[in-house]
C-alpha cells in the first residue's frame, strides 16, 4: 500500500526524523534554555538610600551596560570605565565619518552620509530565542526588523565547482539534496538500521526521500524547479535546469556551508535593529550614559578585603576609584597584561584563553547591483578568504548600499588580514568578490576593514574556549575573586553573542545580590 | 591695535606653538602598554615580551630594526609583523626614546616559567651564549647583546626558533641578528633551545 504523502504526514515525519526534539536537546546541551533561576534576569533587591553599595564596571560593552542598567535602577552607585572612545564594545555599527581604531592604523569611514549606509562590524543577528537581548530591545525601545540569513537566490562560488562560476544557492542546494535523496532511496537497506523497520516503514522512508529530493517515480533525480528554471517567461512553458554533476557537487567544499543556516543560532527567525546593531547600545546609553566614562584606561586592579580599587588613566592623569564590587569585562588576554593582585592560578587562567581573530569588511556600492540579480538581503558564500558577502535588507531599491564584503571567522585568515594594510585588504575583498559578481570592482566606492584582533583596547574577538580549557578554567574564572567578577561574552558558553554577554552579567549580578541580601540580613539581625 | 589685542594675539600664537610642539613630541605610552602590559612587563596572552628593565640601547635598537624592515618581515612571524607596523608609526625619535627609557627603568616581576627544559644540560649549552650575553645573563652593550636574565622564557624560546628557522637575523644590514642566527643554529637539536631557556630562567643578572 503506497500512497503519496500528504503535507501533514510529511511534516510529521520530518519532525520525527530529528526536528524539534533534536533541536531542544542541542539547545539544552549548550545551556541556552533557561533551566533555573541562574538563567533569568536577576531580581535584584532594591537598596535603600542609606546603605547603598558601589559597583565599578570595567568595559562598556553589552555585558557592562547590562550590569550598569540593572544595578543603577536598583539603587547601586555605578560607574563604568571604558578605555576606548566609544561605548558598545564589539557591538559596532560603522557609518560615515566613524573612526575605526585599529592599533597603529586608524581608518575613518568614507561612506556617504546617509542613514542606510552602514554595516555592523560586530554582532549582526539576534536569534528569536535570545530572549534576554530581545527583552532589552523591547524595554529600551530598540525597533527590530527581520534579518535575512539565508537567501536561495544568493550565490555560492568555489574555484573547483562549475568552472569557478558562481551557482545560485538554490541550484546547489536542490541538486545536492536531489542526488543525496536518490542515493539514499535506492540504497536503503533495513538490515543496516538499528531500528526495527517493517517493509512498510521502508516504503514510507523512500517516499519521504522522493519528496525531500523531488525525485522521479523511479527514485532518480532529473532536476527540479526548486533549483530555478532554465527558461521562464511566465507566459509559456518553463524548462528545468539540467542538474549539476553529482561528483562536482560532492567534491565541492561548498557542501560544508549547506547546513550553516540550520544551526540553532543561525536559523529563522533572526532579527536586527533598524538602523544598526548599535541602536542597542544607544538604548542602554540613554539610561546609563551619564555613568559611563570613555577614554578611561585601567592600569591596575587591587583586590581589597572589603572591595576593589582600580587605578585608571584619564586625560593623561592617573586616577583611583574604589567600590564595593567590580564587574570586569576587559578581555582576558588584555587583563593578563594589567597590573593586579589576583591569585596566581587565576592569572594563569586569564592568559590561557585564546582570542578569536575574526574580521569584517564593509563596502559602499554605487548601485544596488545585487538587487538586479534578484538578491534582496541574505548571504552569498565563496570558498575564498572573504567567505561571505552580505546584502543589506534595509534601504531596498535605493540607489546605494553597503555590502559586507568579507566576513572571516578562520583565525589563520584573520592573521593574514592583520598583516595587510587597509588598501591591501580592500584589494583582496575586490579581487575575490569579483568571482561572485563580475562587475564588483567598478561598483565599490569605498570600504572599511575591521580586523578585531588588531582593534585598540580589544586585540581580539570572541574567546576561543576549547572543551579542555572549559573544564580547566571556566568555573574558576566565573567565580568571583574577592569582590571582583569577570564578565562579558568571554564568560559564557556563548562567546561572540550578545546574549552570552548579558547572561554573564546576570550570573554575576545574581551572586552580588545574594551577598548583599545576606549582609543586610546580618545587619538587621 | 590696542596693546591688549596684540597681547592676545601673541598669547594665542604662543599657545598654538606650545600645543603643536606638545602634540608632536607626544607618543602615547598606551600604544605600547596595550600589548606589553601596563608596566611593560610583557603579556604572553598577546605574545608581547617584557620591556621593563631592558637597556634603552637594546629597546631603541630593536625599534630601529623594525623601522628599517630588518625584523618582523617574515610572513609567518606574526607578532613581529604586528610590532613592525606599530614601529612604523613611531616617527618622533626623541619622544619614543623618552618612553623607552621610562620602560627600561621599570622592574620586571619574577617571570613564571612556562618552558619545560633540562636546565642542567642547558647550563652546558649556555657556555657559548655567555661569551656575548654574560655568565649571569647580564648582557653586553659593546657587543649589542641584550640581557637575558629576567626575560620571559616563552619569548626567548620563540626567538631562538625564529633565528634558527630564518624568521629573524637574515638581513645583511642586521649583522648582530645574523650573528645570533648563526649562534642559535649551532644548538644541536630542538630540545636544546628549551634546555638553554630553562637555564636562563635560573640566571639573575648583575
What's the layout of helices and strands?
The complex is a heterodimer of chains A (525) and B (206).
Chain A: H1 7-16, H2 19-29, E1 54-58, H3 62-72, E2 77-81, E3 93-94, E4 99-100, E5 107-108, E6 119-120, E7 126-127, H4 131-140, E8 144-147, E9 155-157, E10 167-168, H5 169-187, H6 199-213, E11 229-231, E12 239-240, H7 246-250, E13 270-273, H8 279-288, E14 292-293, E15 296-304, E16 307-314, E17 317-323, E18 325-328, H9 332-335, E19 339-340, H10 344-352, E20 355-356, E21 359-365, H11 369-372, E22 378-382, E23 388-391, E24 401-408, H12 411-419, H13 422-433, H14 440-443, E25 444-451, E26 461-463, H15 467-478, E27 484-486, H16 498-524
Parallel strand pairs in A: 1-2, 1-18, 2-14, 9-22, 15-19, 18-27
Antiparallel strand pairs in A: 3-6, 4-5, 7-13, 8-13, 9-10, 11-12, 15-16, 16-17, 20-26, 21-24, 21-25, 22-23
Helix pairs in contact in A: 3-8, 3-16, 5-6, 10-15
Chain B: H1 3-24, H2 29-36, H3 56-67, H4 78-89, H5 93-104, H6 119-133, H7 153-164, H8 175-185, H9 190-200
Helix pairs in contact in B: 3-4, 6-9, 7-8, 7-9
